[in-house]
């Protein structure tokens, strides 16, 4: 073989090896996502979780030229959609919009639940947090939560509070408040928020623990009086309403719902980091903040590690609250 042919063969071999060699990990990460991402929403279209998921999905699609497909899988308080998500491949293309109800609370409520949030999911990005609000009729004698505590101590078991149903966070927050204040009040469960709101306005129940969106319209209309929000800080949506900590002796009372994105366990770390950075960038934009505020929630960018710690802490915290409430669901 001539020297010229040998050099040509060597050059071709080097070129072929370069073309056929596997793509470096950094290049693979840069190419992600190379196909549509499915975002499971474990509730029906039109609810708060669904709206937040679609805000995030639309922004990721528009800003990054990704394709994010929202797939509603409702049922059993969100546990059906979560159960499907944990069975999906951990390839970075399957996500679920989880929340406190179905990840921190549901494992202690439902018998035989098929997932463990601390083991079966990877925390990706916290999207928003939202306090609950305690409301009473506009003509109620209660002006503050301190009034409620005083009345309950004077006449135990005469005060009632409504919620959208047994086992909901709203129900359990009522139980948490009762235990913290050392009072006896009775829970009245309803099949959804609307009938509970109606009975609160009419005085059939003394007060109601509600999500902010469910009560906002009637508060603005002057038919409901907002006594307090359940978070440590006041809500942007209800800035004039005090916290429970402000209006009572319960200075450590702090309960909020949260909503965030998860992938199945052992999802690729580089893909988790990519989605987290993209979501956090959108949450910092004024127009996205306004969209989330309109839902009674507040954007809270967070690292995957910090979000995972939040989920773990809330999961442990709610075990005792559920046990104290006596609530159990099949």
TrEMBL record:
Annotated CDD domains? PBP2_Bug27
Could you list this entry's UniProt keywords, alphabetically sorted: Signal
- Gene3D superfamilies referenced in this protein's UniProt entry, alphabetically: Bordetella uptake gene, domain 1, Periplasmic binding protein-like II
Q: Which family does it belong to?
A: Belongs to the UPF0065 (bug) family.
Residues in the signal sequence: 1-21
Q: Which InterPro entries match?
A: BUG (IPR005064), Bug_dom1 (IPR042100)
Q: Which Pfam families match?
A: TctC
The portions of this protein that span the membrane are: none
Q: What is this protein called?
A: Tripartite tricarboxylate transporter substrate binding protein
């Amino acid at each position: 073989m001539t020297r010229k042919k040998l050099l040509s063969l060597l050059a071709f071999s080097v070129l072929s090896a370069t073309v056929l060699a596997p793509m470096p990990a950094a290049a693979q990460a840069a190419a992600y996502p190379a196909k549509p991402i499915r975002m499971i929403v474990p509730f029906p279209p039109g609810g708060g979780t669904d709206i937040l998921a679609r805000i995030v999905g639309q922004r990721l699609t528009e800003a990054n030229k990704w394709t994010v497909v929202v797939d509603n899988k409702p049922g059993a308080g969100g546990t059906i959609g979560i159960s499907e998500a944990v069975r999906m491949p951990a390839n970075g293309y399957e996500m679920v919009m989880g929340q406190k109800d179905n990840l921190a609370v549901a494992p202690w409520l439902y018998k035989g639940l098929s997932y463990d949030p601390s083991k079966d999911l990877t925390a990706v990005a916290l999207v928003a947090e939202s306090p609950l609000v305690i409301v009473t009729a506009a003509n109620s004698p209660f002006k503050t939560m301190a009034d409620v505590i005083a009345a309950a101590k004077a006449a135990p078991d005469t005060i009632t509070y409504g919620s959208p149903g047994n086992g909901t966070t709203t129900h359990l927050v009522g139980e948490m408040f009762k235990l913290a204040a050392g009072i006896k009040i009775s829970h009245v469960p309803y099949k959804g928020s609307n009938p509970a709101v109606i009975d609160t306005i009419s005085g059939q129940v003394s007060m109601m623990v509600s999500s902010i969106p469910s009560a906002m319209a009637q508060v603005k209309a002057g038919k409901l009086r907002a006594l307090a929000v359940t978070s440590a800080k006041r809500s942007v949506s209800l800035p004039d309403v005090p916290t429970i900590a402000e209006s009572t002796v319960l200075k450590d009372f702090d309960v909020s719902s949260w909503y965030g994105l998860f992938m199945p366990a052992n999802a690729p770390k580089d893909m988790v980091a990519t989605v987290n950075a993209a979501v956090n960038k959108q949450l910092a934009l004024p127009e996205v903040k306004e969209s989330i505020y309109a839902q009674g929630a507040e954007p809270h960018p967070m690292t995957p590690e910090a979000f995972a710690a939040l989920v773990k802490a809330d999961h442990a915290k709610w075990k005792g609250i559920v046990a104290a409430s006596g609530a159990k669901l099949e």
